[in-house]
Amino acid sequence: MNFSNVSFFNKLKTQEFPELFYHITSIKSVEEVELDYVKVWLERALAHDNELQFVMNMQKPHPLTKVLNRQCLERKNYLVSMGGIIRSNLQSPSQSNRDAAEVLSMWMKRHQEYLYRPSAILQNRMVKNMTTEMSHSEDFSEALGTLDLVSEFDTIKALTVSIDRNFKKRANQQSTDVLKSIEIRSNVYATLLELLTAVSMAQKLEEPGEHFYLDYCREINRYLDIYRATYDSRITRRRNGQAKQDQPEEEIDNGEHPIVNARSAKPKPFTLSAMNGLKVDVAAMNGNAIQQEAEHEKPTNGGVVHDIPATSEIVDVEHQGAKNGLDQMSEDHL
Fold first, then answer.
1. Cα(first)–Cα(last) distance of the chain, in Å?
2. Alpha carbon 71 to chain centroid distance?
3. What DSSP state is assigned to residue 102?
4. How far is residue 319's CA from residue 63's CA, in Å, rounded to a whole number?
5. 120 exposed, middle or buried (CB, 10 Å; 0-12, 13-18, 19+)?
6. Which of 43, 107, 49, 40 is nearest to 79 (CA)?
7. Rounded distance, CA 218 to CA 199, Å?
8. Cα Rg of the chain (Å, integer)
């Protein structure tokens, strides 16, 4: 019995790869196998157990991730507190404090989008820009001193240095682990192919009436089919999703306005002026009779039509604060 295409095996997810390997190598024990060449390859496959444990452990968050999360959150809190002090001093009775707050508020406006998002990369860049500005601007450093923010800024800089160091250290370790994992998977895959070849050969040489290796092959194929179906389903979903993204958007050209995207175009609130304009459009398409009717329906209050704002037009924009988005840094995607 031949095994169907097993090339998908090395493309399985980190969790699926060792699972399938364990299933296949656990079907028969070394003691049950009598043929030496099958026994040799089964023993070699089982010897990869510790290496596969390393591959499975790669799913766990890196030890430095928790440290980075805590440091980024602490730095964000310092930055938010510093921003609050600057804003409050804009209304200070002291002219010097107001002037200092005015200088620092200009920096706040330039970097405001990064203040409330704990991020290793974005906030590192922001703090480095602040440090550069401080070294080139006496007004900036004097303003920090006037508002007693020098110690807070020094703490922020120290945290940034530590975050940058830990971030690079984690990236280097993860890169090394990924390369090691790829090598382990490649070796395990090669051993599995040799084991399957040995079992298939043993089944072909099996005496009539004997079914040991035939059953062995069937069990292996059963597990291969299960994981292949999972892999194929995932690939199909991915391709379908990509096909939807690549599908050209329907475009609408009404002759008056620029071409708009049909999917992104949202219906506007239906107001009185919109209704009046609709009648004029219909009149233009259907002749003077309807146009005259539309003329009779025009408002008599000087020709002014007041729009009634729709509820959907009244939007209270809230500034997005820091979410529990340290997981949005993917736990491992800071």
1. 49
2. 21
3. H
4. 32
5. buried
6. 107
7. 11
8. 34
Q: Tell me the pLDDT tens digit for each residue of 2-17.
A: 776 788 888 888 889 9
Residue of 194, 174, 192, 193 whose CA lies nearest to 182: 174
Question: What confidence tens digit (pLDDT) does each residue in 26-65 have?
Answer: 999 999 998 999 999 999 999 998 898 888 888 888 999 9
Contact (CB, 8 A) for 283 and 291: yes
CA distance 181 to 185: 6
User: In this predicted structure, what is the pLDDT of residue 23?
Assistant: 93
Give, for 200, the enclosing helix (H) or strand (E): helix 150-204
**Whether the Cβ atoms of residue 255 and residue 281 lie closer than 8 Å to each other:** no
Amino acid at residue number 235: I
Nearest to 27 by CA among 215, 290, 298, 193: 215
Q: How many CB atoms lie within 10 A of CB 88?
A: 12
- Could you tell me if 309 and 269 are in contact, meaning their C-beta atoms sit under 8 angstroms apart? yes
Q: Dihedral sign, CA of 31, 37, 41, 47?
A: positive
186 in Cβ contact with 139 (< 8 Å): no
Which of 126, 125, 120 lies closest to 67, judged by CA? Answer: 120
Q: Which of 179, 157, 169 is nearest to 65 (CA)?
A: 169
Structure tokens at 165: 């160091």
Identify whether the C-beta of residue 166 lies closer than 8 Å to the C-beta of residue 68: yes
Q: Which residue has the tokens 């997005």?
A: 320
Phi, psi of 25 (to 5 degrees): -80, -10
* DSSP codes of every residue in 147-189: TT-HHHHHHHHHHHHHHHHHHHHHHHHHHHHHHHHHHHHHHHH
Q: Considering the entire predicted model, what is its pTM?
A: 0.60
